[in-house]
Amino acid sequence: MTDSLMTGAELDAASDAFLTVLEYGQDIMTSPGMQSEKRYLQHGNTTTFEHSVAVAERAVRLANLFSLERRVDMRSLVVSGLLHDYFLYDWHDDEDWHRLHGFIHGRIACMNAKRDFGEDVVNDVVADSLTNHMYPLTNVPPKYLEGWLVSVSDKMCATSETVSPDRFRSDRRIENAESLPHVPSLGELSAAALAMDTVNGIGFIRSSAYRMRLALKSRNA
């Protein structure tokens, strides 16, 4: 929804949510890792950075809408929203291991986040929210309310970004990409191990299909 179509109340809610994201997550947003997300397009013409901030804002707005402010840890909620896609690579690149992106990128985001921000920031609530935000694509649901808010917000934002007419613009380019930080991802080193471990949690049919695919790939390597 564009600003011109939003009511005054909706604009106020969006403004309040962004201020909350800044209050609890400015250190994350200005970090080299989050800044490096501006290198990568996520859905259509939306960068991973833009998507992540939007998810954090949406999660805060949902918490406020349903009067959940006292039931969630706002710092953990905002950090989870900002870091849920902290996989630090372009999943559109033609790499074999990117084909499992939907199943494993939450766990890669969690590993990268723990490496870059430490376990004081990536506490149990944040770690679980990052790892399981793709539910039900993976069968393990979030344990905490913060994770559910991030999971729902992610799907709302991804859908909006995917169907937006703006995604069909062909002139969107990442400006000054080389001047942006580049933070390496742990993903490529860990993708195969994560894939083998993750298939146990994605359902019998999908698990069997991926086991067969990985076995055939290993045999042909």
Features:
globular, 60% helix, mainly alpha, 221 residues
Secondary structure layout:
Elements: H1 8-29, H2 32-36, E1 41-43, E2 46-47, H3 48-65, H4 74-83, H5 101-121, H6 124-131, H7 145-163, H8 187-198, H9 204-220
Antiparallel strand pairs: 1-2
Helix pairs in contact: 1-3, 1-4, 3-4, 3-7, 4-6, 4-7, 5-6, 5-8, 6-7
In short:
This protein is an all-alpha fold and 221 residues long.
Mean pLDDT: 83
Kindly report the spatial arrangement of strands forming the biggest sheet.
1-2
- Total strands: the figure is 2
Low-confidence stretches: 201-205
Strand content: under 5%
Number of distinct helices: 9
Which class best fits the helix and strand makeup? mainly alpha
Distance between the termini: 48 Å
Protein described:
By secondary structure, the chain is mostly helical. The protein has helices at 8-29, 32-36, 48-65, 74-83, 101-121, 124-131, 145-163, 187-198, 204-220; strands at residues 41-43, 46-47. Strands 1-2 form a two-stranded antiparallel sheet. Helix 1 crosses helix 3 (48-65) and helix 5 (101-121) packs across helix 8.
